[in-house]
Every structure is written in C-alpha cells, then in structure tokens.
Amino acid sequence: MSSELFFQPIAQLAAALDAKKFSSVELTRAVIARTKAVEARVHAFNSFDEAAVLAQAAASDARRAAGQARGPLNGIPIGLKDVIAVAGQPLTASSKILANFVSPYDATVTVKLKHAGAVLWGRLNCDEFAMGSSTENSANGPTSNPWDLARVPGGSSGGSAAALAAGEASATLGSDTGGSIRQPAALCGVVGLKPTYGLVSRYGLVAFASSLDQIGPLARTVEDAAIMLGAIAGHDERDSTSFRTEIPDYRAELKTRRGPWRLGIPKEYFGEGLDPEIGAAVEQVIAFYQKQGCEIKEVSLPHTRYCLDTYYVIATAEASSNLARFDGIRYGHRSKNATDIVDLYFQSRAEGFGAEVKRRIILGTYVLSSGYYDAYYLRAQKVRTLIRQDFMNAFREVDALLTPTSPMPAFKLGEKADPLALYLCDIYTIGVNLAGLPGISVPCGFTQSGLPIGAQLIGQPFCETDLLAIAHAYEQAHGWNTKFPFL
Amino acid sequence: MNYEAVIGLEVHVQVKTRSKMFTRVAAGYGHEPNTLTDPVVLALPGTLPLMNKAALDAIIKAGLLLGCEIAPVCKWDRKNYFYPDSPKNYQISQYDQPICLCGTVEIELPGPARNVMGEHKTIPLTRIHLEEDVGKLNHGATDSLVDYNRAGTPLMEIVSEPAMHTAEEAYAYLTSLRATMIYGGISDCDMEKGQLRCDANISIRHVGETKLGVKVELKNLNSISFVRDGISHEIKRQLAVVERGGTLVQETRDYDGQTGTSQSLRSKEMAHDYRYFPDPDLMPVQVDEAWKQRLRAECPELPFDKQRRFLEQYQLPYTLTSVLVWDRTLADYFEEAAKLSGKPQAAGNWIANDLLRELGAAHHALADSKVRPAHVAALVQLVDSGAVLTNAAKEIFVEMFATGEQPDAIADRKGLKAAPTDVGELEQWCCDAIAANAKAVDEFKAGKESAINAFKGPVMKAAKGKANPKVIDETLRRLLAAQG
Which residue of B48, B84, B277 is in closest CB contact with A202? Predict the structure, then answer.
C-alpha cells in the first residue's frame, strides 16, 4: 500500500482517522493538493469547491472529536459524477445545456453519504448525459487516463474512475446504464460496482435511460466498494423503482462468505473482438478460482448478440423522453436567437446538446414514433425479456458469471471517431443492465504496455453480498490495487 | 335529406386531493404564481414521480360510481409533446390500459313541463383514465409567463362513447356527471376554477347511417352553457357546410363562448404523434378486490337513484325531488328533517322554498345555516298542530334563519301562536255565526260543502284572526251536525 494518504483505501483511512493519526482536514488537504498537482493533466473534474469540502472535513473532525463519528465514511473525501445532485453545487451532466445549473436539492445518495459523514468533493467529468464510453463526449473536454494521458479513461463515468486512479478522491460515485461504471473502472485499474437495478435510489440522478440507470461506487478495493454500497443502498419512497429489501452489512459479510462458488463462463463473451491480452488475463482469473476449488462451468447466453441492438432501442427511447425537459424554459441554456416558441426549443437544444446526445434523441424519437413502436420499442422489450431469461437460466447452475469487463484496454483519445466502434466497448457490460443484474469489475492485471485490465463478475439480483465476496477472494490473493499510475 | 348529429364528450375533472399527483407539494387554486411547486413539479434534472394513492382512490371510486370495470393493474404511460405549460415535456398519463373501462352516465332530458319528469337515457362511457394537469400560460404583449401551480394536479379524463345526438343531451350528460363527481367527493367540479373542462367530438351523418361522419373536436367549452351553445353552433355549422355542398374536414376548433363563434386550430395533418410508451419511472400498481371493496363501501347513492327513492318512500312531488336530490348535503338535510317531523312533504317544502331562498339571499352555504333539520321539523309540527298559522310560520322561519332560535320560542316571544284556547268562547262565536246565516246552514245541509266557509269569516273576525282554522272547522262541523 502507498504511504500517500490520497492513495489509501477507505478502510485504512478510516482506521487511521479513528486512531487520530491524522484528521479529515489533513486528509482532505492532501487530496486537494494532489488534485491541484495532477488535474491539469487528468482533467477528471468539471468543478470543485475547496471551501465547501474543507468545511465538511472540519465538521467531520468535530463529530469524531465529540464521539459522534458516523462510521467508516466519516471524513472521507468522496467524488460524485456530475449527474448526481448536491444541493448548492453545479449539476451539469457535462452538457452545455446545464452549464449554469445549480441543483437546489440533494439526490437520495447524496443525503445518504452526508448521513454517513462523507466529505463530498467536486463534480466529476463524464460523457454528456452519461452517453458514451470514453468521456470524450463531455462539453468540458475529455478526461485522460492516469495510466497513459494520451488515452481515454473509459466512460461514461471516466472522471469518477480517473480521479480515483490519480489520487484525487478516496472513492467516487458513478452511474451505469450500459457499463458506465464497470468499463472505466476496468480501463483505470479500480473496482467498479453496478448494483442490482432498484437497490440504489435514482432520485437525484440525471436520467439517461430510467429502466437501466443505476448509481454505484468506484473504489480502490472490493472492501471499499462494500462500504460505499452499504452507505447508499436501500429503499427510497421517492423512487418507485427502488426495491424494498433488507440491506446487509456488505463489509462484514466479506469475511463470512468463503465459497467455493460455482462460476459460469459465458462462451459468447470470449469470441471475436476480444483483445488477446485481456482474454489471457481473464483466463488467469478463471484459473485462480479453479485452484480455489470453485466449480467452473461453461454456460451460454444465446441472446447476447442482440444486446447492443436492444440496448440502443430502449436506452435511446427513454433518453429521448427524459431529455425533453431540457428546453430552456425553466432552467438551463436558452438560445438568444429564437424567434418564437418552437424556434426557442430548436435553437436552445441545437446549441445546448452535443452530437452524441442529439444522435440518441433522434434515434429514440424515431423508435417511439407512430408506426415504428411495435417494430422497435415493443420488440426490443421482448428481446430484453429473453436476455434476462438467458441469465436466469445460467443462474440455475452457477452462482455468478465471470467475463472480461471490456473487450479492449484504454484506447487513444480521438481513436474511435465512429460512434458504432465506440458502442462496441460495452458489449460485455450492456446485458447486465438489460437484465437488471449486479456486476462488478475488479482489476486483474496489466497489458504489456502497462494498461489496466478488468474482469467482470455478474451476480444474481440482490446478491451483492456473494458478488462482493467472490471478487474480494480474488483481490485478496492478488495485489493489482497496490500499483498506482505515475503522474 | 335528414341529418343527425353524433356527439362524444371528453371531460377532464380535477381530482380533489391535498397534494399533487406525483409529489407531496400541495394542490390548490388562487395562490401566488409558482408557489405550489417543488423540484418534481418543475421537472428539475434527476427528479422522479411518486404516485399519490389518494388520487388513485378517487378515480377508482369514480369508476365504481359510474359502473366501470376497474382494471386489475394501474399502469402509467408517457405522452410526449413539447409545450411550455408541460414541465417535463411529457405528461404522465394512461394510454392503452386505462384504470376504468365502460360504465355509464344516466341523464334526464327536459320534460314536457317543469313539474313532469323528462325522459331518462343511459350514455355509455368508453374509459376513464388518470393523468397530471399542466401549468397555465399567461400571454403578455411581448412575452408569455408560465405558472406551474396547476401543473401536476391529478386529472381524470372521462371519455364517452359517441352516443349523444343533441346539445341538450350533452348538457344533461355534463350536469349529471358533475353531480356524480361532487356526490362522490371526487371533485368540486368548479368550471370557473378549471376543475371541470370539456371537449366535444362532433360529427353529422344521414339518419339511418351507422358509420361516423368526419369528426370535429371542439375545445374550450368552459362552462356548462358554453357546452350546449358550442355544440349547437357546431352542429349548425356542419349542416351549413354540407348544405352548401361543401366538405367537412377533420380538425380541432376553438369555441369562443363570448362571441359564440369557433375557429380552426389545427387539421388532422398537423395532429401530434405523442410517442406513448410505458413510464419506466413508475411501477404498475395492483388494484385488488379488498381495495375496491373498501372504496365501494364509501360510494354514496347517486342522485337519480335518490330521486326515485324520494318519489316512492316520501311520496314527494317530482318538482320537489328535483330540487332536493342534486345536492347531497341538501338531500341528507331533507331526510333528517323528514324523519324528525314525520311530514316529509311539509319539511321538503320549507327546505326547497324558504330555506333555499334565505340561503340564496344571504349567500350562505347550507353548512353555515343556523336552521338545522330539527328546527324545520319543529316548525312543521307547530303548524301541523295548529299552534301557529302559515303566515306566522313564514315570519318565524325568517327569524329562525337569522338567529337559530327554536321556532316555539320565537312564536312565544313574538306572540305568533294561534290564540284562543278557550273552547267555550270559540264555540259561542261559532253558534253566533251559524245563527246569523240560516241560508248557509240550509245550503250546507243540502250538501254544499263550501257553504261552511261562510261561517268561518265572522268567527275569525271575532277571534281577531288568532283562532286555529282547523279547530274552527271542527267546531262548526260538530255544531252543524248536532243541529240534525
């Protein structure tokens, strides 16, 4: 482990804070200083508010001094993707259309993190409205991968992954609609967890595709991810899609669940298009579990080849409707050139949205249009059911599935100019969202050129406890998270 | 060639709930602009809808009152269109699975005379669904302002089958529907406050034809009389077009009740594509038997059922029932007074004539009236026993309305009771009157019943107008009979 505070995992920081080895203000200052040192190169943040974060840190120290520390997150600087509302802070979704928008209210996860005593630090860059796989679709410019600044950090939660990898936050929150937590986690060498749909409230998350979006943590270790998940999970009456379920102590359960597990290897996830170095790394992970006595079983998810098409119908349809509210009437960018109300809509949205967002709105509008609904949206929903069924069938035989997270390691900024090429980044992650399952990406090595590789574990609905335990077992036996990028 | 009109109504009724359809902020009317808002109403980024169960209760109850089938699952859809009064630029509504299907509205058409019941008809409903209301635009000379106070208020859309043929039927339909909604406590249906709004689909066709003609949707029928006038105007307009040899086009027209004219808003070619799809933010809600049973238990007797019962149970004249039954609290008030007095018609008359007149003059609601059913019953009994005369009772009523005092006390205080209780004195006056008019005695004995009235004047005169006419009548008959 690094001696630098900004590279230490939450579990270690929390113990040190409790032991009064340093204060949250000192930790926060270290994170701020690190951020200032590297941010010009990484550009993980859209904005940050130093005074606000230090005030929170001081308050957390005061609580600790008064014996009122609120658990392991008390005083830990946590970065939030700029699609999660924090009262009084900008909420831009990395879009020009929300460039000047300040949220007057807190997202439910924000409220929960505040309750847990966390120090909320900065607004993290992402693809505009979380649409993308490289963070290049940000109105604020791209984020760089801390492991190679000429490369992308992945996306859409690229800022969340890059900030963590670069030591600019102790953990972060991202959102995952088709892989947006797991893929950047893999590309930046950190842990990324996309919880079961309905486990974490979406209230206060700028909606991209309501039936797929889920907030989740990016963390240095699986244990940290468990701590973060425990803080943000739980039913919220403000989100009618959130599920009423008991929230276990994920962190404590890591020590109680020991396998051996039955792991499924979906053959469709190891075919054409998979970078051989990644394939080899994931084979090593399989070998590890086998050595641990886990039953390894090849399984088939036959509808995998329809995932991408299904996703781009459902996600864009929902997005076209969710993004209709950005019209320049009540808030956000309003064109100065408009001549009448219809023109105001056209101009404000033409000026405010970037190309990828426009592309998806147009696609989504098309698939919902009269005469096309049955052929696209309705059919996609049916295929979605089949895709979910594939997973459920597999789970009759295995406890979890093991796959690569991303078919390729971090690619060069500007390398994938063709939107379709970028869409292929998510082929291993999208099915999890369509099926509403939990998925976690854990670091499992590096390419010869030094780029991080991630392995994905996919669990049964609301079985995060098992998923985390399985990932934890691998992580404990390896040390990938003790390596840090040189910046 | 003979034409008939075919009319279907789409009625929007605001549901009376404390909070809005999908958030906790209060619903209301007449507040400062944009004060009944919150992040959800304003559709701030990240907000999600949270269903108000009271609104769902209300629509299910409305459906039960109108005999609808209640769907086992309440499902929500998004209706997508851009307009500044719609904060999300989509409206949460119900598209292919409305919560209520079928059902009927009973209507009564005007009778041949005011005191004769008119023909009753049953107008079938297509569906009722729940959605959220939009905000209000206020257009200035150079800009437009939006007030989102109304946005997100629960709104029911009640769609009838194209089953009406005259403006009168549409008028009767709306009147009956409105009364039913008020009866069920579902809405106050104040059209001035926009709590009830009506659009009409109107077409004409040859009599005997079964296919529907080209439909015109008439909007902005903002009062019940505008509905009648607007429809009547539109039917005439369509007939005129056809009679000129012209062709009707499918369009939406805006009716101006002030000028009695309508203008085309948009044609079929410009119709919206609303891109309906299931709202992924809201889970479908199961409506089980127990839920329906609980609401069924809260359903009141409907006005026409009440009227039929009043006619039979209390033997009231039609005119009186038609005054009493349309206001649920008035009908309840009447029933209590009828029970307490044992004289339903007399109680009904006092309520329908005197009470409503005084309430109207004082601009009071029935609930504020100091005259309670017990007062009415006491007054009915005073008159019936002969203790007070009708004219005196009218005076007592006015006093009672102003003070809330018991009628007996008012009669005593104001000396309004029928006076001579001295039977001997009254009998003497009667004997004197009979003795003084032998001709009338002969006529009465010959069977001319009305001849008895000739004695009553002198007796009442002798009693200085304070004798009980009923006692006078009885005494006179007894004395005349005794004469053999």
Answer: B48
- Shared-domain flag, residues A76 and A222: yes
B45 CB within 8 Å of a chain A CB: yes
CA distances from B387 to B159, B373, B411 (A): 56, 19, 9
Same structural domain, B345 and B277: no
- Interface mutation vs chain B, best among A243, A330, A433, most B CBs within 10 Å: A330
Domain total for chain A? 2
Q: Verify that B353 and B459 share a domain, yes or no.
A: no
Instruction: Answer with the residue of higher pLDDT: A2 or B305.
Output: B305
In a domain, A346, yes or no: yes
Q: What is the span of the domain harbouring residue B274?
A: 3-294
Q: Which residues of A touch B89 (CB under 8 A)?
A: 324-325, 327
- Closest CB to B78 among A209, A321, A345: A321
A407 in the same domain as A364: no
Q: How many helices (H) and strands (E) does chain A have?
A: 16, 11
Q: Is A462 on the interface with B (CB under 8 A)?
A: no
d(CA A107, CA A130): 17
Examine the domain organization and report whether A425 and A459 are in the same domain: yes
CA distances from B93 to A2, B79, B271, B372 (A): 55, 7, 18, 44
Question: What ranges make up the beta strands (E) of B16-119?
Answer: 69-70, 73-74, 77-80, 90-93, 100-101, 104-108
Look at B43 and A207 and tell me if their CB atoms are within 8 Å.
Answer: no
Domain contains A396: no
A37 CB-near residues (< 8 Å, 6+ apart)? A487
Residue B484 predicted with pLDDT over 70? no
Pair of tokens at residue B209: 């034809």
What's the length of chain A? 487
ipTM exceeding cut-off 0.90 for this assembly: yes
**Higher model confidence: residue B130 or residue B269?**
B130
Subunit contact B39:A331, Cβ cutoff 8 A: no
Is residue B430 located within the same domain as residue B340?
no
pLDDT in tens, B217-248: 999 888 888 999 999 999 999 999 999 999 99
Across the A:B interface, residue pairs with CB atoms under 8 Å apart total 100
Residue pair B164/B9 in contact (Cβ under 8 Å)? The answer is yes
Residue A223, domain extent: 5-265+401-482
Contact yes or no for A316/B28 (Cβ under 8 A):
no
Domains of chain B: total? 3
Which among B46, B275, B277 has the least Cβ separation from residue A85?
B46
Among B45, B84, B88, the residue with its CB nearest the CB of A206 is B45
Q: If you average pLDDT over residues B358-369, what whole number do you get?
A: 93
Q: What is the DSSP letter of A206?
A: P
Q: Calculate ∠ Cα A75-A110-A426, nearest 5°.
A: 105
Quote the radius of gyration of chain A (alpha carbons, Å). 21
Query: Is A91 among the domain residues?
Result: yes
Q: Any bridge partners for residue B385, and if so which?
A: none
**CA–CA separation, A17 vs A25, rounded Å?**
10
For tokens 């690094």, the residue is: A2
Question: Residue B138: beta bridge partners?
Answer: B145
Q: Which amino acids of A are annotated catalytic?
A: 81, 156, 180
Cβ of residue B42 closer than 8 Å to a chain A Cβ: yes
**Contact present, A166 and A146 (Cβ < 8 Å):** yes
Do A378 and A412 lie in a common domain? no
User: Angle B469-482/B438-445 helices, nearest 10 degrees?
Assistant: 80
**Which chain B residues are closer than 8 Å to A321 by Cβ?**
78, 80, 90, 275, 277
Is residue B419 scored above 70 in pLDDT? Answer: no
Is A394 domain-assigned? no
Angle at A380 between CA A375 and CA A382, to 5 degrees: 105
Position A125 pLDDT exceeds 90:
yes
B418 part of a folded domain: no
What per-residue confidence (pLDDT) applies to B427?
84
**CATH label of the domain that carries residue B429:** 1.10.10.410
